[in-house]
Amino acid sequence: MTLLTTLADILGPQGLLTDPADMARWTNDWTGYYPSVPLAVARPTTTQQVSAVMAACHAAGQAVVPVSGNTGLNGGASAMGAIALSLDRMTAIRNVDPDSRTAEVEAGVIISRLHDAADAHDLIFPLTFGARGSAMIGGALSTNAGGSNVLRYGNTRDLVLGLTVVLADGRIMDLMGRLHKDNSGLNLRHLMIGAEGTLGIITAATVKLFTKPRAYATAMVAAASLDAALTLLHRIQAATGGAVEAFEYMPANYIDTHLRITPGTKAPFADRHDVNIMIEVGATAPRDATPLDDGSVPIVTLLEETLAEMMEDGLILDAVTAQSEQQRSDMWARREAASEVIFDRRPFVNTDIAVALPDVQTFLTEARKRLLALDPGADDLSVVHLGDGNVHYTAYPSKEDPDLSAAIREMVDDVVQDLGGSFSAEHGVGLSKLDSMAKRKDPVALDVMRAIKDALDPSGILNPGKVIPPKR
Amino acid sequence: MTLLTTLADILGPQGLLTDPADMARWTNDWTGYYPSVPLAVARPTTTQQVSAVMAACHAAGQAVVPVSGNTGLNGGASAMGAIALSLDRMTAIRNVDPDSRTAEVEAGVIISRLHDAADAHDLIFPLTFGARGSAMIGGALSTNAGGSNVLRYGNTRDLVLGLTVVLADGRIMDLMGRLHKDNSGLNLRHLMIGAEGTLGIITAATVKLFTKPRAYATAMVAAASLDAALTLLHRIQAATGGAVEAFEYMPANYIDTHLRITPGTKAPFADRHDVNIMIEVGATAPRDATPLDDGSVPIVTLLEETLAEMMEDGLILDAVTAQSEQQRSDMWARREAASEVIFDRRPFVNTDIAVALPDVQTFLTEARKRLLALDPGADDLSVVHLGDGNVHYTAYPSKEDPDLSAAIREMVDDVVQDLGGSFSAEHGVGLSKLDSMAKRKDPVALDVMRAIKDALDPSGILNPGKVIPPKR
């Protein structure tokens, strides 16, 4: 019996796709830079089916690439010649427990569905980013996705209490649970999260839920400089006791592009400003969300007072506070259009890096200077999770030229390394950052990663060629 | 040249102890249950010396047990016949950076020294527990220590941004950094934290610091039941937006024992109560800490109002709020006397388990019932980080009998497993929980741990015989 016949037996009629037309959805991600044709697409519906598929592929030495929402930006789910193991039919939200504030979900649950399920209990699952309507929990776990609320709630790994993982040879590893303290041996949960499917396939997870903020204060702020913006962040964190949920920087050319590609939208301010910040503060305590006699809400008043003080000091040039849910939603829509804004022009070189907060301005200045030295006709655009020091930096070279693109990536990595930053903040490594891993990551750490990979997947069938570069 | 000569050359005159009198401090921990005589005590002063020691021991196939403050409770630092590698001379606080709110410290820094260093900048390092005056940061990292503030700030691993680790063969792995987002490959930081020195020796770390609360509201509360106590926790978390720092349960016999062994101390209440809770709420926002016209502080008022409401409902029987720093300090002293209270009687069987919050009462009831079935003359005593579901359960069998002690451990593990809990919450595995690991941990997870251990320490020289039980 051939492997494909075995897989068809395991998965049933809808479970295995081999016709190129049926597989179209899995042949590319939406960057368009990682086209690939899988040998077949396996679509299991249970952890047991994933286990059986892996056992069969392990016996056959067949490469397997786990895929969920296919919204990654680094080619991590590119499955050329491999079995694309799609989690898209494992969509059960097994439970939402308001008492323990946890939810148990399968890997194919789309993030926004989990948002809705939590919301029904007045709770939130705080992980959020632009692709939440397509991205699935499995991919978020595999890449340790970040997003706009990391400042308050942490990265994906900080939101997870338990996992079910299928290993390369099909064994099922039970790391499930909903405990807040558990020191029973090596922490395999954190090892599997962020491994981009190279060590195992996450099929289910228990995640933390949080009290839904009772009110939000959301504003667009034009700051005099990035330093002034960081002062705002520190002041409002101090005033609210750390209640800032999002602190997002959009430079002038981001706003320009957004206006151009989004008919009917308005500029945030009458004047054009260099440093546009979207800030959101969440009030979880009732006294911050109970309307005052004048109809205002304390959390909003607190933000507005801080902004007014800073305008007097000249640190803030303009500010608009959302006065309705619609205005708040418009502010978020502008920020969440980042992918459309960034990918509006081609060719592009898109990176995702992190530096310490005070180094963000140095990074941006230095990267632009060196970009223009490499290619005087180039341009760049950034959008920054400023509260995390996480810059999405996109360069637009004047021509499509692989050598030039490589030189730009190298330049960005140089600037980041000089600042003690990371060449990959929240998008992972996938294919696109293998060279950075080889060149920038501590060589001993790389050797340890290789040793772990070899120990857990000795035939190298799990997402081969990704994340961990070969020894040179 | 013998190994000891080589080590003496590396470490210099004060760096290697072989005389039993000099080594006395390293021959036992303070539980008294894990006596051991090391071959020698190596006391390096730099990461480079640790590296050279490990390279030499690796070449000689010599077992090495890293030791820091020796305050562990599970025998994890017991070094019979091994080189005890003591971090006690690596005591530099390399920097405290208020801007990035981080500190870079060597592994031998005593926790309370780091508290003081942070306090000088009006910041806190939130990890705290009774042994903080002896315990060192290296041991806290290796065991992923918990303590009393986990509810608000997380376990030790959540407080760490970077590590330096020396591997079994002496290679130095650089995982240092102070980034809030970093997805550059497998997460080796979380793998090393909590590994109890079986995969590498942590020599330095970058840890997070936090804004020092501007005021605390601290109270002793007699709740009508554990369920009522959990209702209090949920209500005060909701009212303060999640500002509860500690929520500690002490049963009546804890209070009795504390009174008996602590001359001059007073009972918390006029009457004896079953459910005594110490609660502390920290106010980080100025408006919660600014004295009102009547001299009270809003955070205290908020706590007192919540307590008053619950007294009316009959859920709380009595409550005392600390009116001065001295009263607060007395409340903490009672809770932090836990080790003296627990270890006042012998023989004992001390365990540290976690269950979901609503299951704590079930655990306590069931464990006592089954304890008395095993040994009608036995007694027990618990102290509980109730906000984390973390129970320190101590049984006092009527006689010293290894079989009976083993049966009691087994019984506790049975109750925990039935409730989906963990047999090790915050003290790690060490020697004392190897049987629990073998019997209770998912067998696939155990195999994965063994594979990782073999990959990173193929000769098995790092803290041999701890944490990961051999394959049966």
Automatic annotation (TrEMBL), chains A, B:
GO terms for molecular function: catalytic activity; FAD binding. Its cofactor is FAD. Keywords: FAD, Flavoprotein. One of its GO terms (biological process) is respiratory electron transport chain. It holds the Pfam family FAD_binding_4. Residues 34-212 form the FAD-binding PCMH-type domain. It comes from the Bacteria. Belongs to the FAD-binding oxidoreductase/transferase type 4 family. This is FAD/FMN-containing dehydrogenase. It comes from Loktanella salsilacus.
